[in-house]
Design goal:
The complex is a heterodimer of chains A (690) and B (313). With 690 residues, chain A is α/β, with parallel strands linked by helices. Chain A has helices spanning 11-18, 25-30, 34-39, 41-58, 60-63, 95-131, 133-147, 151-162, 166-193, 196-203, 208-244, 256-264, 274-296, 309-328, 379-387, 413-419, 431-434, 441-453, 457-470, 476-481, 489-501, 519-536, 547-553, 571-576, 581-589, 654-660, 670-677, 682-685; strands at residues 340-349, 354-363, 368-372, 394-403, 406-407, 424-427, 507-511, 539-544, 556-561, 564-570, 640-641, 648-649. Chain A is built from 28 helices and 12 strands. The chains are: A alpha/beta (690), B mainly alpha (313). Bound molecules: iron/sulfur cluster.
Chain lengths: 690, 313
């Protein structure tokens, strides 16, 4: 019964990682999230029950109607009556009195286990983290041994040696359990120990012990509380179990386990007897677990890539709403053209903030569209919505995605399944993570080919080999037999591209396909994509933050900022003659986008950050960072023709800037520098953002 | 892989040895010398001393331990102080009882737990909350309490199963299964809840992996993503969880054996501890450890085999 506990509930490791402080030990300390506890109804109920139980058991002598040994022979084995609220046992002793009289002892001795287990486990974890690999190896070995022995049997042997001395037994139980606590704490202690401020403290000459106590321990507080609650529950259960098999407190003294044992003798003639003690014990365990779980609950860190059935039902509703709204709301964007036509697309967290608003663009067959911008601008969300693969909880909230005339934004899951892979395929940023680590390349590729091309096994295998050769893999036969972790990143991306091609798609959505790769490999992958576009006539939507990639491969560009398209047009026009200050800034800040000849002395920076969706202003979303912002920018800015061919731009000063030929200036303090160098233009660049 | 197996084997041996030393020391700390225990109350001091001398009780501890270890390696765990029977023979009779109990409970918790955990993760919403609630209740209720309720409902009220006792497999396979049913179910309630939680968390983590998106992007049917790819990814932590569960259930059998009057190892520990029967206590502790460590070793190797990264290296 012991190791039931040792590996703390699986969610709590994630919780431990999530609870790591971002801003330093102080923040971590205050994070011992009373609010998280009281935000959960289970947690509140748990605290109330435990508090009530402690108070009731401490004051028991004052209010209990009977002494534990009082025998009422007129009411033996009775159910609840006015005199005996919870009934009586086989000797006519009052159950209520016995339960509460023994509560203090049960809770107190269980707490001994908590203190020993959590205390020792934490100390061991901190020592491992602080004293280096050698010490960690030793401690880990020892705890491994402790976890792999039958703890219950050993505890019984201990009882043989020390007798039924409950406090001692509970302390030894704590030692056995501390191994599990150590395992839970170690990772967190190590990551706290490797924080920068710990290094800084070391340089300042703070002792190892000082660092552990001042910087590591506070960060562990929440985990300590969580584990304490869970171990408390375990201690009570084990203690009751021991009492049940006859190793409880000496005989006349009541104990919960002993009372249940007594009740079990009368389950035939007085089954009620089982209920009160069992219920109090279960409620107390439940309360401790509820507190632990409420405190340990990890904030939903990463979203699922395959929403649960319930989440899918919810999404289906959202999709239906988008489809219905379509008829009513006509957007003022130009009519759809080309193979893929996105019109007024909005994406948002279901019931939460918007992530992408009113995005429109077109992709003609056999061309490459670049979606450009910093991270956090909504590029990836836009791209994923084309495949209906938005992460769990994120939905397309409006607009149209017209694929050969069909609106994918309003398509059901099943309809999308017919499109994915066959019409529209995906390659993503980290090829290693995009492939299933548990299956060989060959299995993944052939099963996709069999599914998407409806061919037999042998033919699929042949096709897999030829696809790998097509993406430039020479020893295709060998690669087919490997697992993803056995090949390089560049090779994995080629495999991922082959996988994407297995359904002969007509549109490839590529989400930063080269970002995670070495520079030389990047160029190879880009040229592979370029030749694939030429050979197969498919189109590509390429998400990137790299203007070098754009210049290399894209025919059209849509520059995105804070969930909007801010500039849109032919690649050549946009790179040579940018109209939006953000595009200007990106170009000025990109070393690759500048030709060696006219490389500026200093690269420009864009100060500040992309605003969070909740901070988006009603006016120009780039305003807070724009060197050219003026009062006119505070009103909503429409996307208007930029004047160069079919280009569009979302900036009130676009024309003005084009005429003046202004440049984004490489300086931390833009206004100053501009004032100094170009005093005549101050009226244009002055910042009146107050 | 060979190196890994060797390392694990050495670890397992070390574990058994550590426990053997520990058990030896604990047994020596028990009140009453072997002579006093075996002769019972009222024996003369001379008689007690004579028995103690014959058993080598007064030799240095190291000598005694080495002697015990030498015998133990040859399969002789000494004789019981209470009834003079061979401890090895007694435990050999008892081991199948506890082994069937623990194996059955582990199997049932595994099947039930994985099914519940996967369902909770896959269905989400209401189903997830209901499964979560049931699991919370199941881990909060002590196994012995659940067991008594089962006895009351299934044995007393409907007499489908025998309430207590154990029928050896050789005697009647059918009665053997019936006699195991209630204790196994009793132990499996908590075990299944634990594995369900572990499975749910592992499945959710698996579904957060990026390769799941790739699978969807290549039109893999949902059932295949869930039950082939995600479950395969989650299988590593699930098997590890089941291995841990076996240790717990093996220990938990002490309670089940007491409750259902089954002549297993747990009952042996309980009685030999109560009667201060030193050789029996020591024998049962070591045997239990050997079994648990061996099963864990096998399950751990299975986990490693499930992981392509470790298999290849
Ligand atoms: S000039 Fe005004 S509208 Fe144009 S980008 Fe700057 S802040 Fe926005």
């Amino acid at each position: 019964m012991i190791p039931n506990v040792a590996p703390a509930p699986a969610d709590s490791t994630a919780a431990a990682a999530a609870a790591l402080p971002k801003s330093g030990p102080k923040a971590a300390f205050t994070k011992v999230s009373a609010h998280r506890l009281f935000a959960s109804p289970g947690g509140v109920a748990g605290v109330l029950w435990l508090a009530a139980l402690v108070v009731a058991s401490l004051t028991a002598p004052l209010w209990l109607p009977f002494k534990t040994e009082d025998q009422d022979f007129t009411a033996v084995l009775s159910g609840p009556t006015a005199a005996h609220w919870l009934g009586t046992d086989e000797l006519g002793r009052d159950l209520l009195s016995r339960i509460f009289a023994s509560a203090a002892g049960t809770l107190g001795t269980s707490f001994i286990t908590v203190i020993v287990a959590v205390g020792l486990g934490t100390i061991l974890a901190m020592a491992s983290a602080a004293l280096g690999d050698r010490v960690e190896a030793v401690i880990s070995r020892v705890t491994e041994i402790m976890m792999s022995v039958p703890g219950t049997v050993i505890i019984l042997a201990v009882i043989g040696a020390v007798g039924t001395n409950i406090p001692v037994i509970m302390a030894i139980l704590g030692i056995l359990i501390s191994a599990g606590i150590y395992r839970v704490m170690l990772g967190q202690a190590k990551s706290l120990q490797s924080q920068l401020y710990v290094d800084a403290a070391k340089v300042d000459g703070v002792s190892t012990l000082g660092i552990s106590l001042r910087h590591v321990l506070p960060g562990l507080t929440n985990t300590i509380v969580v584990q304490s609650a869970l171990i408390f529950a375990v201690g009570m259960l084990i203690q009751a179990g021991l009492a049940f098999i006859g190793f409880g407190p000496p005989i006349p003294q009541p104990s919960w386990g002993g009372m249940i044992q007594g009740a079990s003798q009368h389950v035939y003639d007085a089954p009620w007897l089982m209920v009160p003690t069992g219920a109090v014990l279960a409620l107390t365990v439940l309360a401790a677990n509820a507190i632990g779980n409420a405190l340990g609950k990890a904030p939903n860190a990463a979203a699922s890539h395959l929403p649960s059935a319930a989440a899918r039902r919810q999404r289906a509703k959202a999709v239906a709403a988008v489809g219905a709204a379509q008829v009513a709301a006509g957007t003022d964007a130009p009519p759809a053209k080309g193979q893929l036509s996105v019109r007024g697309l909005s994406v948002g967290v279901d019931g939460g903030p918007r992530l992408v608003t009113d995005v429109s663009f077109d992709v003609e067959q056999g061309t490459v569209l670049g979606l450009v911008g910093e991270s956090g601008c909504g590029k990836t969300m836009t791209a994923l919505s084309l495949l209906g693969l938005l992460p769990s909880g994120v939905v397309a909230t409006g607009g149209q995605i017209l694929w050969n005339g069909k609106n994918l934004a309003a398509a059901t899951d099943r309809e999308m399944e017919a499109i994915r892979g066959r019409d529209i395929a995906l390659i993503s940023q980290e090829p290693m993570r995009a492939l299933d680590p548990m299956f060989t390349v060959g299995y993944q590729l052939t099963s996709a080919i069999r599914r998407l091309r409806k061919v037999g096994k042998a033919e699929a295998r042949k096709e897999a080999r030829s696809l790998l050769e097509k993406v430039g893999i020479v020893d295709a036969g060998r690669i087919l037999k490997t697992y993803p972790h056995q090949i390089s990143g560049g090779m994995a991306q080629r495999v991922a591209i082959a996988l994407a091609l297995s359904g002969r798609p007509r549109l490839l959505v590529a989400d930063e396909p080269t970002t995670a790769l070495d520079v030389t490999v990047q160029a190879e992958i880009l040229s592979l994509l370029r030749s694939l576009v030429k050979d197969t006539g498919m189109s590509v939507v390429m998400v990137t933050h790299d203007l070098g990639v754009v210049a290399d491969i894209c025919d059209q560009v849509a520059v995105m900022y804070a969930g909007q398209v801010v500039e849109n047009g032919k690649t050549a026009n946009i790179l040579d003659n940018p109209r939006h200050p953000y595009t200007l800034a990106l170009l000025a800040a990109d070393p690759h986008a500048n030709h060696a000849a006219d490389m500026p002395e200093r690269l420009a920076t864009i100060s500040g950050q992309v605003p969070q969706p909740k901070d988006w202003p009603t006016g120009c979303r780039f305003m807070a960072r724009c060197q050219f912002a003026g009062s006119a920018c505070a009103a909503p800015v429409p996307l208007l023709p930029s004047g160069s061919e079919d280009g569009l731009v979302r900036c009130v000063k676009a024309d003005e800037l084009a005429v003046e030929g202004l440049e984004w200036v490489a300086t931390e303090v833009p206004t100053h520098r501009l004032l100094d160098l170009t005093p005549t233009r101050t009226n244009v660049v002055e910042k009146d953002m107050a | 892989m060979a190196l890994f197996i060797t390392k694990r084997l050495l670890m397992a041996l070390a574990t058994v040895l550590v426990v053997a030393v520990l058990a030896f020391l604990l047994v020596h700390a028990m009140p009453g010398s072997p002579g006093a225990v075996s002769l019972g109350a009222g024996a003369s001091q001379e008689a007690i001393d004579e028995v103690n001398a014959r058993l080598g009780w007064n030799d240095p501890l190291v000598v005694q331990f080495v002697r015990w270890l030498g015998d133990a390696v040859q399969g002789n765990l000494g004789t019981s102080l209470i009834d003079g029977r061979s401890v090895s023979d007694d435990l050999a009779n008892r081991l199948p009882v506890t082994a069937s109990l623990a194996a059955g409970a582990t199997l049932l918790s595994g099947v039930l737990g994985v099914a519940l955990g996967v369902t909770a993760a896959v269905r989400g919403g209401m189903v997830d909350r209901i499964v979560g609630g049931i699991c919370g209740m199941a881990v909060a209720l002590p196994a012995f309490w659940i067991g008594i309720i089962f006895v009351y409902l299934l044995a007393v009220q409907s007499s489908v199963f025998p309430a207590t006792g154990y029928v050896p497999f050789e005697a009647s396979p059918q009665d053997w299964a019936l006699s195991l049913a209630l204790p196994v179910i009793t132990l499996a309630v908590g075990g299944a809840a634990f594995i369900a939680r572990q499975t749910r968390a592992s499945m959710l983590e698996a579904l957060q992996q990026e390769h799941i998106r790739t699978l969807r992007a290549t039109a893999t049917p949902t059932w295949k993503i869930l039950y082939v790819h995600a479950l395969r990814y989650a299988s590593l932590p699930i098997v590890a969880g089941i291995a841990l569960q076996f240790i717990g259930l093996f220990g938990g059998s002490v309670i089940a054996e007491q409750l259902f009057a089954m002549p297993g190892l747990g009952q042996a520990v309980q009685t030999s501890v109560s009667t201060h029967d030193a050789p029996s206590v020591q024998g049962v502790v070591v045997i239990a450890t050997v079994v648990v460590v061996a099963v864990n070793l096998v399950l751990e190797l299975a986990t490693k085999f499930l992981d392509p990264k470790l298999r290849a290296s």
